[in-house]
Amino acid sequence: MSRPTRRIASAAPRAAIATTLAFLTLISGVRAGMAETFAYVGNADSNDISVFKMAENGEMMPVQTAAFTGVEKPGPSTPLAITPDHRVLIAGVRSQPYLAVSFAIDPKTGQLSHIGNGPLADSMANIASDRTGKFLFSASYGGNKVALNPLLASGVAGEPKQVIPTGLNAHAFLPSPDNRYVFATNLGSDQVLAFAFDATAGTLTPNDPPAHKVPEKSGPRHFVFHPNGKFIYLVHELNGDVAAFAYEAKGGAWDEIQRTTALPEGFTGKPWAADIHITPDGRFLYASERTTNTLAAYKVDATSGKLTTIGSVPTEKQPRGFHIDPTGRYLAAVGELSDSMTVYAIDQSSGALSKLKSYATGKKPNWVEFLSLP
């Protein structure tokens, strides 16, 4: 009686397959399981978005220029927002008719496909999704108002549901980490308005107190929450201040704990600060200043929330917008007057920035969003 033959797989084919896979991974520059990272740059004078794919070493490769369908005239800036599910990118058009242009984000290539356009209540300097992705917040600098639009299932903005008059020059309108409050900077009135937000009903009501005052003629512009939700950092356009606040999540209260500057040492001109962002781990904070064309860097104390200045580096001409990639290893800044973007490596010990390379964008770039897919 013959014994059954046992088939023993040769190790050679397995080794060959492993070698081939390793080679393919090497030439593609992507490790197995590594998320693909993309940068989206809003170009105001071009009425389009420059899409870049970022390699692990910070190198950027242009992959697409996505034009705004149905838009002819350029506006003064192009704010961008990405929904929390990473499915839709929305661009605010600041020329008439005022529109929110929605694009579907391809989960594999990061490229954009136009979905449709929805109405905005005015020329909006800032747009942002709520934490559920069902509503769009927007702030009008020239119209002195903020608004709330529902986002339809398609990702297109519906008609404004609420339009609320504010003090002078609303510039940012962003939700708290828990989505219970929304805050609006009023640059010309030196205050931050506070609203309670009902995400189920989609309604905003003034909080108690309804406003937080900041120093006169400081010009509160943009702000960012610390990832731990305990602190807020606010950059002031008119005096270059960067202020740190303790944030009380239960009632939505701001309590200032420190005030420093985004201006380089020895600067005596007229400040014109712009943007502010924090690394995903909350260890480093950065702010842009347009008169000096610089980026200021700070270390963040996670316990006290206070800042220690690292220093400033030169950057693109008129750096209205910048952002930090999801790994916290790179920062990309764009210049409205240079039509280009510079990428910096963030030193993981000190937070210092070192320039890597610059890339051409569209005309008058002013906004950067990063996204890792899937």
Walkthrough of the structure:
With 374 residues, this protein is mostly beta strands. It contains 1 helix and 28 strands. The chain has a 4-stranded antiparallel sheet with strand order 3-2-1-28, with no helix packed on it. The radius of gyration is 23 Å and the shape is globular. A hairpin with a 5-residue loop joins strand 24 and strand 25 (330-335).
Strand line-up of the largest beta sheet: 3-2-1-28
Low-pLDDT stretches are 1-33
Number of helices: 1
Strand content: over 45%
Distance between the termini: 57 Å
What's the gyration radius in Å? 23 Å
Mean pLDDT: 93
Helical coverage, percent range: under 10%
* Biggest β-sheet description: 4 strands, antiparallel
Q: By helix and strand content, what is the structural category?
A: mainly beta
Sequence of secondary-structure elements: HEEEEEEEEEEEEEEEEEEEEEEEEEEEE
Shape: globular
Using DSSP, what is the number of strands?
A: 28
Name a few traits of the molecule.
374 residues, 4-stranded antiparallel beta sheet, 50% strand
